[in-house]
Amino acid sequence: MALVVQKFGGTSVGTIERIQHVARWALDSQARGNDIVLVVSAMSGETNRLVELAKQIHPMPDSHEYDLLIASGEQVAVGLVTLAINTEAEKRGSLKKGQLAAKGLLGYQVGIFTDNIFSKARIQGIDTTRLKSLISNQIIPVIAGFQGVDSESNITTLGRGGSDTSAVAIAAALKADDCEIYTDVDGVYTTDPRLCREARKMSRISYEEMMELASLGAKVLQIRSVELAAKYRLPLHVRSSFNPVEGTRVVSQELLGGQMEQVVVAGVAADGAQVKLTLQNITDGPGVVAQIFGALSRASIVVDVIVQDIPSNGMLTISFTVGRSDHLKARQVLDELKAKTFSSLRIAEESDLAKVSVVGVGMQHHPGVASKMFQLLADADINIKLITTSEIKISCLIAAEKTKQAVECLHRGFDLNRAD
Amino acid sequence: MALVVQKFGGTSVGTIERIQHVARWALDSQARGNDIVLVVSAMSGETNRLVELAKQIHPMPDSHEYDLLIASGEQVAVGLVTLAINTEAEKRGSLKKGQLAAKGLLGYQVGIFTDNIFSKARIQGIDTTRLKSLISNQIIPVIAGFQGVDSESNITTLGRGGSDTSAVAIAAALKADDCEIYTDVDGVYTTDPRLCREARKMSRISYEEMMELASLGAKVLQIRSVELAAKYRLPLHVRSSFNPVEGTRVVSQELLGGQMEQVVVAGVAADGAQVKLTLQNITDGPGVVAQIFGALSRASIVVDVIVQDIPSNGMLTISFTVGRSDHLKARQVLDELKAKTFSSLRIAEESDLAKVSVVGVGMQHHPGVASKMFQLLADADINIKLITTSEIKISCLIAAEKTKQAVECLHRGFDLNRAD
Fold this sequence. Notes:
Two copies of one chain form a homodimer.
Chain A lengths: L2 E6 L7 H16 L3 E6 L5 H12 L6 H7 L1 H21 L9 E4 L1 H4 L1 E3 L8 E4 L2 H8 L3 E5 L2 E3 L5 E3 L4 H12 L4 E6 L20 E3 H9 L7 H9 L4 E5 L7 E4 L1 H4 L2 H4 L4 E17 L4 H11 L4 E6 L6 E9 L3 H14 L5 E14 L9 H11 L6 E5 L2 E7 L3 H11 L7
Parallel strand pairs in A: 1-2, 1-9, 2-6, 3-6, 9-11, 10-12
Antiparallel strand pairs in A: 4-5, 7-8, 11-12, 13-15, 13-16, 14-15, 16-18, 17-18
Helix pairs in contact in A: 1-4, 7-9, 8-9, 14-15
């Protein structure tokens, strides 16, 4: 008897038919002798619809009422999925009169406690009392992903893709045996199949590679969910809700075994929604850089690649990238800094950029991956605007229009089209 | 300085523009020196959309998950209205940095406690602590109507039109000076203007008349809200959110003054969605009728007109009406009763019926209103299928297709087209 947390994303609950499929799937999983806990996202398109409504009122809503608004999407999905499970169980005749097959729970009803950074809240703790009581009564808890509650009982949300993190956190809190992430693709690919037809599904990937892929725009999993899974050594299984085949298992590096020696680069990732901001004419001095990035951090803006030139004439130039969704807010923070502190500051922006990256734990032991990557891009006549590297990834900022071409040449150049 | 509860219905928050209008209106009301509390319904069409989704899964959803689902509509409206007020206040520059103009609150966040009759929950108490604290800080609470929370922290809903009841209950708990109900009509009319072009807006109406009109299908206010207002002698002001003119004030009979002596019939109401159920061949005996209506009541079915024939040969015939929305559920209850207890029972149904009624506190002191009503309908060649009377109303069940004709002849026959 295993305890399995199953998370269903937006497309998996995108229509009433899909919701009924999820209900049958969960009950089938339970009938095979497992304890099941569901975590669901909003129906696909719903969160965007709500965000659009809010943006008609305010271009940058990021407050308590915004979270309260968009959390309603998951609430609808929870209501419908629970209704579908109870209806299906009734149809199967597997329930005694008055008994429930499933019970819907919102973040505050479970007790998913977060900080109060609205729209990007982090989970601080999960109360498992109610969940354990339901599980022991063979009732499937259907939990709203993406949302929690702060210490003042405000609804908070965890940021885009936050339902993955909800699922992993709940699985970790319950010490679940498995955490299945159901999505609209059947696993994690060596690169985005829409960009490269030779993309290939991986059967296994390490937490570390998955983290890099997630952070680099392969939006199969929210990166925080992978970090959390790695921390608790919780096995993830990314799979399709449309297709019962095995997906990709995200596991510890140790479990990848001999594979590690052979594969240098595991995957190629691309993220198209990048904006580069260049700050020029800053008078250098102690704490100047910290002051700038401190201000951005306080505004909860995630800064990605940072490149700092060697100061000349005591003047500093810094370039960095932010996601397109943080662009306006970052610009506002910088304008305020200029007004208050750095009056000589010049701010240049370049949008329509993409970041392509190669990722693989194998590259730690294989020199020359970076130079090979630069050569492959040069051969394809693609200009590199910024470079950043870590132990298991190398990223290059390029023009967004070259994304597909770059991914294809890297995927083939690193032999990712061959079977693993 | 008055404390005013303003309730905005679905059409009043039906678009972003309307929501922005509500925000300006609330802030203007506050700027005139009032303390303001808002109660909002779901954007028009939203609750229907959610109900339709649920019905694709189950024809008669009426459980905990259904309430959780449909309560999300008000949550969206609360988020957007709060966002609009804070945005508008920022634009007006009337706030200090970091200060809020409005704060959105769901049922459980306020502490609107109800029983656990899902979809038809009744309010048991309201915690005013948080509301009073916000008000004293000049922050407008924006409260989700229609919803509450039961003792197990399940979300409950109050039934269609429940936001009116939320508003009145909150106003009563806060001892508000006024409760303004903003809707898409500019007041209460002598009859439905869509059915009768001579319908005339009333400047005042008594609680008792309003209750009868509400219960009879004039859907301006949920009847429970009027009952509650009457109980606490809370003045209601039904008015348009599209038009700043005075609407209709719902007040105590005493306040109507001399008017009472002159007006016999205050209004004509019509309710088109009626189904008549006739139970034949029941063996009469002590407690039989109680057993039947007890079963319907336990299923939370509201039974309206009841007519019982004089038993002949020890066999009983009972007719009664239910709203169309309760039809299926009522039928199920009756089928179960037949299967278990009353095997000889025959059930006949007649749908496509309407109930037309005349209402007026004046008729208590004027005999002959009933006979005049029957004569007016007879003159218009309209067949009466059931009659029921109270001290201040007389209702007749007729064929739904004759509704408009009946309303017109009664409205004119009782001189309602003349000014009050």
